Amino acid sequence: MADIYPAPVDFIDRSDYRLGSEREGLIQLQSNGLFIRQPPKPHELEEDITPEGCLFQTIHMGAPVVDTSRWKLILDGLVERPFSINLRQLRQMPHASVMSFHECYGSPLTDPTKNVWRIGNVEWKGVPLRYLLAIARPDLARGYFVWSDGLDSGTFAGVSADRYQKDLPIEKALSAEALVAYEMNGQPLGKERGGPVRLVVPGWFGTNSTKWLCRLSVQETRSPSPFTTTFYNEIDPTDASGIRKRPVWKVEPNSMIVRPRPEDRFSCPDYVEIWGRAWGAVEIVRVEISTDQGHTWSEASVTPRKQFEWQLFRLQVFIQQSGRHTIQARATDRLGIRQPLSNRRNHVPIVQIQVESK
């Protein structure tokens, strides 16, 4: 595998990559157990970039307290040149920034249709994962997955795990967007956000962006971790039998309505401006709006995507009748996959407003 970038390998440590040494920077686990900080309601997410205080948090087994002076990242497995680096060395490497929506699949213990709109839009900064892989030179004939380990451990939903571990297909790991990140929105990653370093996988659900990252390992098979086998799998909607499951990886087309707010009041006849956000693993190219419970749809304007950021849609509709009106938004991506109306976690959003005659 040729180096994708010129690799500053002179300071790479090719001796101290002992399995287990990557956890020596862990001081303690704080607030053991599951913690979820719910996001604001969609109508409160007005800013293009979501501030830290408005972004959801999901912690499965407690937040690690890390000694940044002892933190290290090991990259090993089916690679020609395993190595380890510390935080200072990581920050000396070529970096990239990616603007991306960040969406939580929600608790894998509850009905996924109830976990909707845990979403924000942030800017990540870090070292491209493919840059690190280029230094290690993975065996692409056998190394089909990259496992990522976090420093957290414990029990989740009665299942014990000695580490939070996920996996990525090698194709996604080698994509330009995947980062080993140390900043969000221009600030160092805090403890609850997965600092000092986390994996970031734009276009995929947040569960794949391993927090408190300490190890990356190229392997032939998927990880046996409970967070890939027991948790974070869903019924494949393309399976007519409704039995086959698939990993919670790519984010399907989704949208939310920011304005009007639920129960806003308007006079008629008049124009009502409808706007919101749409997102998915693949760029959204069409958003349709309905104000009559889905009987008719009108196409909104959609801002093209530059990276993986959520996309603004906007439409003015002329409402002539008084009464309650139901507004829905439906997104379609570049591959023609359209947001479902109901019974899925990415079902169309619904906002009801009240319209009165002047």
UniProtKB/TrEMBL annotation:
Organism this protein belongs to: Penicillium argentinense
Domain Oxidoreductase molybdopterin-binding: 60-226
Protein name: Sulfite reductase
Keyword Endoplasmic reticulum among UniProt keywords: no
UniProt cross-references to Pfam families, sorted A to Z: Mo-co_dimer, Oxidored_molyb
UniProt keyword Oxidoreductase present: yes
Keyword entries, A-Z: Metal-binding, Molybdenum, Oxidoreductase
Species classification: Eukaryota, Fungi, Dikarya, Ascomycota, Pezizomycotina
GO CC aspect terms: mitochondrion
Annotated GO biological process: sulfur compound metabolic process
GO molecular function, one term: molybdopterin cofactor binding
Cofactor: Mo-molybdopterin
Ranges for domain Moybdenum cofactor oxidoreductase dimerisation: 248-345
